[in-house]
Amino acid sequence: MEKYSLLLKILYHLRLYTIIFYFAVIMWHIKNKIPKKISTKDILELFYYDFLKVPTEDCEIIKMTDNELVTRCKNNCPILNFSLKFRIDSKQSCKRISEGPCKLFLRKLDKNIKFIRNYEHIRPYKDDCEETIIISK
Q: What CATH number did the domain enclosing 67 receive?
């Protein structure tokens, strides 16, 4: 079991998980039709519920306007589980593994979307993870 742990840590440092996440983004965009005009409701549905598979009951909407969406999610997160298992700070692993792919996913919906993860409000330090998505006009 220890050699598998070492292998998983090596894969983390080689950024293989990030590459897989990027691949998932590209495949999702190939397979799915995107509305021409994206709303924050569309982002909630497409990004959180469809792509990330966050159950609706695990995604609290803090704020939703025409151009801003703030969420706090407490879903079962593979990056958090990985971080806890291998004693890696989730602030680092989350940024390293998912920040780029999440930004790419949203940019492919609309180039005017900005993604901000609040690393001061992230698990396991808080009960949920907070993210803000802004659509620039």
A: 3.30.1380
Residue type, 31: K
pLDDT tens by residue, the chain, 137 residues: 565 677 667 777 668 889 999 999 999 999 999 999 999 999 999 999 999 999 999 999 999 999 999 999 999 999 999 899 888 899 999 999 999 999 999 999 999 999 999 999 999 999 999 999 999 97
Select from 16, 40, 46, 12 the least CA-distant residue to 28: 46
Which residue carries 């589980």 as its tokens? 81
Q: Which residues does 1 contact at the CB level (< 8 Å), separation at least 6?
A: none
Number of domains in the chain: 1
User: pTM value?
Assistant: 0.90
* Residue-range definition of the domain harbouring residue 21: 2-135
